[in-house]
From TrEMBL:
Keywords: Membrane, Transmembrane, Transmembrane helix. The chain crosses the membrane at residues 7-29, 35-54, 66-95, 107-126, 133-151, 163-182, 189-212, 252-270. This is DUF4129 domain-containing protein. The keyword Coiled coil does not apply. It comes from Sporolactobacillus shoreae. It comes from the Bacteria.
Length: 400
């Protein structure tokens, strides 16, 4: 039972990334849908050999890279998959077998699903794949596997996931219907911009260029060009009577691409040979405590808040400092980019910075703690004191 608990999430993960790899490789394959079966066989081989590497304690990134290249060569030589999709197989297998497996958490998997959704929409709109509606069935299968994986890993924190998934599918269906209705309108806009505006503009430019060239051609130059063309035709007729010697044809771009690919493979092997990675357990990969999750969310919200330098923060303590700095900027006493809060207050208060203000701000901003009632009272009183000092400085400046 314990072994099944570890094997099931890994099987779900590899099934999930197999479908994602299939969506990425689908437009590059000449046979389109039939590429799934050889890709599934290669994925099973990759997963089996990865298990052996794990048992032998050989889980180095260089070994995984060699294993992925072997699967890529198998796809190219035995399954007759073209060269570019075979190289993509090596890259995808390496990523999903190492970096993806190492970061096997909920946030990373949802990011991969977002990538998969983008690829599906792009393939549906722009690729020449037959039976394109089946792409969304693959995407739905990915979503089902993702849900089962997350619920299997941690049931308590994902009990609302099926409801959210159904809501997501309904929303996606409505948006798909809207896009399918508006698709002729977008195609009409594209046709209008290309056929009416761009094509005519290029025609006018080419015509003007041709007229300009004709303007500089004299009758003597025109005669020379005509004689040169006549002589080239005569030489062509005489050369046609002689049987040319046939030399063997070599596909030099193909061999050059193969040579460069081999160099890249060797360089990556040398780079990866010292890289080990940690295979997380089920508990490490998905289970995150509510405290850690809220703290990381708060830090991300603070560091990546939209227009962070223009909009005031939501925290009242930081918002008070924000408005104080804006008032100081209007008064010509703004905080410089290289100044800390202490340096700024030391400059504008002429050597007597308010310690209650600095302590309260640092406790909230960097310590992520709440101020007590007495600390809040002292902090906001200090903010009012500095604000009055700024206003008094502006008033004295106006009088003088």
């Amino acid at each position: 039972m314990t072994k099944l608990r570890h094997v099931l999430p890994l099987s779900l993960y590899f099934g999930y990334v197999l479908l994602l790899s299939y969506l990425i490789l689908l437009p590059f394959s000449a046979a389109n849908w039939t590429v799934f079966f050889p890709l599934a066989i290669l994925a099973v081989i990759q997963g089996t050999l990865l298990t052996c590497l794990f048992k032998w304690n050989r889980m180095k990134l260089s070994n995984i890279w060699v294993l992925s290249i072997a699967c890529s060569l198998t796809a190219f030589l035995f399954f007759h998959i073209p060269f570019l999709p075979s190289c993509l197989i090596a890259v995808l297998f390496t990523y999903f077998s190492s970096i993806g497996l190492e970061r096997r958490n909920a946030a990373h998997l949802w990011l991969l699903f977002l990538v998969s959704s983008t690829v599906t929409i792009f393939d549906y709109l722009f690729s020449g794949i037959s039976h394109r509606p089946l792409l969304f069935l693959i995407l739905l299968a990915e979503l089902v596997l993702l849900n089962i994986f997350l619920i299997t890993e941690n049931r308590s924190e994902n009990r609302y996931l099926p409801v959210l998934t159904v809501a997501f599918i309904c929303t996606a269906a409505i948006l798909s219907l809207i896009v399918s209705i508006l698709k002729p309108f977008f195609l009409w806009i594209y046709g209008f911009l290309f056929n009416v505006l761009l094509k005519n503009a290029l025609y006018v430019i080419a015509n003007a260029y041709w007229v300009l060239l004709n303007h500089f051609v004299t009758p003597e130059k025109s005669m020379r060009i005509k004689k040169a063309l006549q002589n080239s035709n005569a030489n062509q007729k005489s050369s046609d009577q002689i049987m040319p010697h046939i030399y063997p044809q070599h596909d030099y771009p193909y061999w050059m691409g193969l040579f460069l690919t081999a160099i890249v493979a060797v360089v990556l092997y040398l780079k990866f040979r010292k890289r080990n990675f940690h295979l997380p357990s089920a508990k490490e990969s998905v289970s995150v405590t509510l405290t850690e999750r809220s703290a990381s969310f708060r830090n991300k919200r603070e560091s990546k808040r939209l227009l962070g330098h223009l909009l005031p923060p939501r925290d009242p303590v930081r918002k008070a400092i924000f408005s104080l700095q804006k008032a100081a900027e209007k008064a010509g006493m703004g905080r410089r980019t290289t100044e800390t809060l202490s340096d700024w207050l030391l400059r504008i208060e002429q050597g007597h910075p308010n310690q209650d203000l600095i302590h309260g701000y640092h406790k909230v901003r960097y310590g992520h703690h709440e101020l007590s009632a007495d600390e809040k009272k002292s902090f906001f009183a200090s903010v009012d004191q500095v604000r009055r000092m700024i206003e008094a400085s502006v008033a004295m400046r106006k009088k003088s």
